[in-house]
Specification:
Order of helices and strands: EEEEH
Radius of gyration: 14 Å
Number of domains: 1
Largest sheet: 2 strands, antiparallel
Strand order of the largest sheet: 1-4
Helix content: 10-25%
Shape: globular
Number of helices: 1
Length: 66
Amino acid sequence: MSMVYGEGQHVDGEGHIIAPYTTEPFDYQRPSGRCLCCQPTVFFRAHIFQELGQLDTNLHYCLDYE
């Protein structure tokens, strides 16, 4: 396994839970038109970055999709 992700929560400025973040099962066949996981819950093994390179930090508004 090279990547895992979990469930997240939407919270307000005071840290109160507003709603769960919609998380879906991973599917390689699915187009990347919408986010299927909560980005802060994602963890990659180091070999992913060694094989594919670092994230493109110029993508300020869509870095989660990188």
